[in-house]
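Intended use. Records like the one below are meant for learning the mapping from a protein sequence to its folded structure. Do not use them to infer anything beyond what is encoded.
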Amino acid sequence: RNQMAAFRGFVFRLPRTLRSIRLFPRQLKSYSRTLNAAGTPSFKLTSGLVVSACIASTSVVAYAKESDESTRKRKFKSAEGADNRFDIFRPVAKLFGRVYDAFVPPDKSMLLPPALPDEWGGVKRTLVLNLEGTLCNAKYADETYRITIRPFVATLLSDAEALGYELVLWANCYQSKIDPVLPKVDKEMRILHRLGQEDCTYIRGEYVKDLERLNRDLGKVILCDYQFESWDFQPDNAFVVPRFKDRPDKALVEVDVLLECINREGIEDVRPTLRRIQDGESLDDIFPDVTEIRKKKLRLYEREKKAVKRRREEEEGKRIQREMAHLTRPSKR
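Structure written out for the chain above:
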């Protein structure tokens, strides 16, 4: 019955289809009249206005990008490795964000329970780390994530925990990506809390990490990230880490040196120190004994680098042995 109904509909539509084919020359004539009208003054005026509007909008977008970047880089002189995720849709996202902000107030609820005291009854410092681009790079392929871990991650997490820092992960991605990636990055499970992009505050078309929602003393919070919009609410708590580009670097060594220097000096409020770093001062200008600490961390870095190389060689040797065993195995006929 369904096949007969479909065939009947095709037969009934056939004359209409043939008539549309017959009308094709008329459509061609109307199209040629449109082409002839392209030389009229009104058409030239309209096309000129459209082209001028496109050029003006492009100039406005370029100026907004340049002023935005120059303002942020004046505020962060040490932010050469930072990224602001500018793209062609950013002005549209900002416009939509302003409309969204007018109807939906930002969420101010606390994301974490109150902090546990340290072993002496004091307040722990909190280290907030980003995942993608800071600790690792993870690309989804063949129904799994191919993860490239940044050098010195394991040592940084171990040293931070030993120094008494509370470790919090606040990623720029959703929990659906954090759950399969983080166990391979933090194998010892030293990170106590994990937050994602759904926990950020969406304002002005950007996802901002509002550190006040962590339920922690902001004077003891350090945010390590590479994106400008992540710390728009609390810029004084930011320590800029260059984005990881799948090449060995020593960016996390500097983070580890900073944590140990703050712990040695017994700094109660980290914001003035981070502000001096943002103004262009180096760790050598702020802390007197940073050279010895950096040498110690670099020795750990080289040791970890050799261990990773040795582990890869062992894995490659085992893989070659398995392939050779498979090739030399007699076939069963």
